[in-house]
Amino acid sequence: MFAGQEAFKCMANCLDNEALEGAALDRCSRRCTELLERVKHAVEHDMNELQERVSRGVQLCNDQATDMLGERSEPDPAMRERAEKFADECAAKSLKSHTSFISAIQQRVSRIVE
């Protein structure tokens, strides 16, 4: 069952339990959301890692494209076009190389939920 639905049902059970009050009710409700919190933190961590990797890859591509232009104050249009094409193709390769990381995130979340 979906973790969010489980948490909702768990919270409803806590609230329906008339014997629970104050701190006991608070502990019960916190236990209900522990799984969601673990999933949330794992996804946030992994997405930040992915963002950093993608940013570093794109930055490397941009640096290499800039290096292709050399130290000319005004590179000719053909050279600028080659550098832009290189940067675009390089960035696309970099992004593609990180797609496996997305499935790793999915697998990690699945392991947490199980």
Fold topology:
Layout: H1 3-16, H2 22-69, H3 77-97, H4 99-113
Describe the structure.
It is a single chain. This protein is mainly alpha-helical. It has helices spanning 3-16, 22-69, 77-97, 99-113. α1 packs antiparallel against α2 and α2 packs antiparallel against α3. The longest helix is centred in the middle third of the chain and has 48 residues, at 22-69.
Which key terms come to mind for this protein?
114 residues, mainly alpha, 4 helices, 86% helix, DUF842_euk
Q: Helices and strands, in N-to-C order?
A: HHHH
Strand content: under 5%
Give the mean pLDDT: 88
Strand tally: 0
**What is the terminal-to-terminal distance?**
10 Å
Helix content: over 70%
Largest sheet: none
Uncertain stretches:
none
Q: How many discrete structural domains?
A: 1
Shape: rod-shaped
Short description:
Helices cover 86% and strands 0% of the residues. It is built from four helices and no strands.
